[in-house]
């Protein structure tokens, strides 16, 4: 009987322990299932994250565009490729690249203006040559049409008189304008006299006046 009572008591204790363990196990949440469900759900990016990512990408594109622009300028502008001994072998800063670019553009503007002036001068010279060519062609044509016309009509004496009258007119202005106090003054006066009294229009007026004067003497 004593053994039977002891066995019954032990069985009761084991039974209560099993019951308590089952109850405790049933009250604990199933974390494994919840973890598996959590990892299976995809991550949803918030609106703020999307805006932040878009701003970052835009800033990266802007910086890349600026860097590429400076690199292109440095490759195009010849002065940027030349060695600058003031900075040694260091990479050119953005400020230096911009300044060299501005200087080069100003240089190109000056060269363009200079070339335009040269082209304008060449056009004027070409126009003058065309006029002279047309005049000579008319003279040659007139001579070919009537080779004996005007022959022996103007004597050498008349030619000399025309030349003498022209030189006399020029000498009057030359004598009134030139100072012979020193060689320096003479040189300066000669150049100023040539610029003032030997212009094509001035010489033309002198020759026309001389011809009219001789014509009135002859007729």
UniProtKB/TrEMBL annotation:
Look up keyword Oxidoreductase and say if it applies: no
Q: Which residues form a coiled coil?
A: 105-132
Give me the stretches of Basic and acidic residues compositional bias. Answer: 37-59
Taken from the UniProt entry, a GO cellular component term is: cytoplasm
One biological process GO term for this chain? positive regulation of transcription by RNA polymerase II
**Where is this protein localized, as stated in its record?**
Cytoplasm; Nucleus
Classification via CDD domains = bHLHzip_Mlx
Compositional bias (Polar residues): 16-30
Gene Ontology molecular function, alphabetical: DNA-binding transcription factor activity, RNA polymerase II-specific; protein dimerization activity; RNA polymerase II cis-regulatory region sequence-specific DNA binding; RNA polymerase II-specific DNA-binding transcription factor binding
InterPro entries according to UniProt: bHLH_dom, HLH_DNA-bd_sf, Max-like/E-box_TFs
Q: Per UniProt, which keywords does this protein have? A: Activator, Coiled coil, Cytoplasm, DNA-binding, Nucleus, Phosphoprotein, Repressor, Transcription, Transcription regulation
Q: Partners and quaternary state?
A: Efficient DNA binding requires dimerization with another bHLH protein. Binds DNA as a heterodimer with MAD1, MAD4, MNT, WBSCR14 and MLXIP. Can also bind DNA as a homodimer.
| Role, per record | Transcription regulator. Forms a sequence-specific DNA-binding protein complex with MAD1, MAD4, MNT, WBSCR14 and MLXIP which recognizes the core sequence 5'-CACGTG-3'. The TCFL4-MAD1, TCFL4-MAD4, TCFL4-WBSCR14 complexes are transcriptional repressors. Plays a role in transcriptional activation of glycolytic target genes. Involved in glucose-responsive gene regulation.
This protein's name: Max-like protein X
Organism lineage reads as:
Eukaryota, Metazoa, Chordata, Craniata, Vertebrata
Q: Which gene encodes it?
A: Mlx
């Amino acid at each position: 009987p004593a053994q039977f009572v002891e066995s019954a008591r032990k069985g009761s204790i084991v039974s209560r322990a099993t019951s308590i363990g089952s109850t405790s196990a049933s009250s604990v949440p199933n974390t494994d299932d919840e973890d598996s469900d959590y990892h299976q759900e995809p991550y949803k990016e918030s609106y703020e994250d999307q805006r932040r990512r878009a701003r970052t990408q835009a800033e990266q594109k802007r910086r890349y565009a600026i860097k590429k622009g400076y690199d292109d300028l440095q490759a195009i502008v010849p002065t940027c490729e030349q060695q600058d001994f003031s900075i040694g072998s260091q990479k050119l800063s953005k400020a230096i690249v911009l300044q060299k670019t501005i200087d080069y553009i100003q240089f190109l503007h000056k060269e363009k203006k200079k070339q335009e002036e040269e082209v304008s001068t060449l056009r004027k010279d070409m126009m003058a040559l065309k006029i002279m060519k047309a005049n000579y062609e008319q003279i040659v044509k007139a001579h070919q049409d009537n080779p004996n016309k005007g022959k022996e009509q103007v004597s050498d004496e008349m030619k000399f008189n025309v030349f003498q009258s022209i030189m006399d007119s020029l000498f009057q202005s030359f004598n009134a304008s030139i100072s012979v106090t020193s060689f320096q003054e003479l040189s300066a006066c000669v150049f100023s006299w040539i610029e003032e009294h030997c212009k094509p229009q001035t010489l033309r007026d002198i020759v026309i006046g001389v011809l009219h004067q001789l014509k009135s003497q002859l007729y």
